[in-house]
């Protein structure tokens, strides 16, 4: 039910997507937002059961800010754009969150204040708007995820849902972290940290809800990236290993934390100071941190759960350029780094997000004039053994192995000139080269739909 004076948020369409928005697949950047954009605006990505990716983001209009939604097909095409609220608000969360909604739909969670006049939506709470799975129409119920009237000042909102769909939301403000379970009555829960906490993220791993945040307090114990289980029981605050050097650290945007398919909570963050020496990928509770190659000078980091236990990791650096990779199924090995590039003519990345549950990585960045989207696919790796042999001695059989982050890939086609073979379940196949094969280098290409091609060389001496 709507309060008096509130415009019904019927999901007013921004307009049909023009033909040039129907691009969006791997290697093609598409602007997916409308209206103005602040450089502190963050997007939130969520995929519904039909495979459609939904993007929630703030959109400015003069002094006020609203929320907007864009839907993107599994192939990367923009399929719809809607307003989430019927009006812009005087204060709006710069980092709203999109989670599961009722009946398999969508729920936007955000702190804000509609106007300075009295009314439910001007109480500064953590509000929620809902939509069916299509995202085509949005409703703003008279309910909030929590009682606090300070959520409009959030330093980086976080939200998730319990297994039954109950929303859980949290926000940091100065030294306090406040969270609430559900939209019903009942007091908020809080704890304090040394000032100040920012860029919060929340995930559910089985029945357990975890939150993570970045802190820039004084000294090693108050500076870096931190994580804590908050539900169903409150656990200890744990600092991510190497997330600060003494009492100094680097923020990397909304904290990159995911619950892996198959179990486990993972964080990715910058290590080193005064610049990022490398991105560390850490399983919470583990003593080992994987160093991600090619991440020196990274300034934003994003992480997503992929299928069969894999993770997608994306980062941007100060060139700027966006890069990404996918891990193996056990998150013990890292795949080939992919250069995702940048939209033409854009010179900065202010926020970064990735969603990889379909196998591809959907990447959304904010470059100052709004939000842009592209996709990235994992790359194959191909190796031949032996890689070198002597010309004219005998016919040479070369065994090729095609992998994805160390995992064998079946059905990949390996080509060397006119010769080719197809890998079996082991990821292996064999090509025989006649002893008349000329001296020099032979280019090896491996391909399979859904992957970027791999290239290597053999040498006949």
UniProtKB/TrEMBL annotation:
Residues 12-33 are annotated as: Disordered. This is Carboxypeptidase regulatory-like domain-containing protein.
């Amino acid at each position: 039910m709507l309060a008096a004076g509130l415009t019904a948020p019927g999901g007013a369409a921004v307009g049909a997507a023009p033909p040039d928005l129907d691009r969006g697949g791997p290697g093609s950047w598409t602007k997916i937002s409308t209206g103005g954009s602040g450089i502190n605006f963050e997007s939130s990505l969520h995929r519904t059961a039909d495979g459609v990716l939904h993007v929630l983001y703030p959109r400015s209009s003069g002094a006020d800010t609203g929320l907007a939604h864009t839907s993107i097909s599994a192939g990367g095409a923009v399929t719809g754009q809607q307003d989430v609220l019927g009006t812009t608000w005087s204060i709006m969360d710069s980092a709203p969150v999109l989670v599961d909604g009722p009946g398999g739909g969508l729920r936007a969670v955000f702190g804000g204040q509609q106007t300075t006049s009295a009314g439910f939506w001007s109480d500064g709470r953590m509000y929620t708007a809902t939509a069916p799975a299509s995202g085509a129409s949005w409703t703003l119920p008279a309910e909030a995820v929590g009682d606090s009237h300070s959520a409009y000042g959030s330093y980086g909102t976080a939200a998730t849902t319990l297994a039954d769909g109950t929303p859980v939301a949290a926000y940091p403000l100065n030294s306090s972290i406040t969270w609430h379970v559900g939209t019903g009555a009942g007091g908020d829960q809080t704890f304090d940290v040394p000032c100040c906490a920012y860029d919060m993220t929340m995930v559910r791993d089985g029945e357990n809800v975890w939150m993570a945040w970045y802190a820039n307090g004084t000294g090693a114990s108050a500076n870096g990236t931190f994580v804590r289980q908050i539900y169903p029981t409150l656990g200890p605050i744990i600092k991510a290993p190497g997330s600060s050097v003494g009492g100094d650290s680097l923020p990397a945007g909304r904290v990159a934390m995911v619950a892996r398919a198959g179990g486990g909570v993972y964080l990715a963050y910058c290590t080193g100071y005064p610049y990022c020496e490398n991105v560390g990928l850490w399983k919470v509770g583990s003593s080992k941190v994987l160093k991600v190659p090619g991440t020196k000078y990274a300034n934003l980091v994003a992480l997503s759960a992929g299928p069969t236990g894999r993770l997608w990791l994306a980062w941007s650096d100060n060139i700027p350029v966006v890069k990404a990779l996918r891990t193996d199924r056990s998150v013990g090995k890292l795949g080939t780094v992919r250069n995702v590039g940048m939209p033409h003519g854009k010179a900065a990345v202010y926020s970064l997000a990735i969603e990889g549950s379909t196998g591809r990585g959907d990447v959304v960045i904010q470059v100052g004039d709004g939000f842009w989207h592209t996709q990235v696919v994992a790359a194959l790796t191909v190796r031949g053994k032996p890689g070198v042999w002597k010309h004219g001695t005998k016919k040479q059989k070369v065994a090729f192995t095609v992998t994805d982050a160390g995992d064998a890939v079946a059905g990949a086609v390996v080509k060397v000139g006119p010769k080719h073979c197809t890998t079996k379940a082991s990821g292996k196949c064999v090509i025989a080269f006649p002893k008349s094969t000329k001296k020099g280098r032979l280019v090896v290409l491996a391909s399979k739909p859904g992957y970027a091609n791999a290239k290597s060389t053999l040498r006949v001496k």
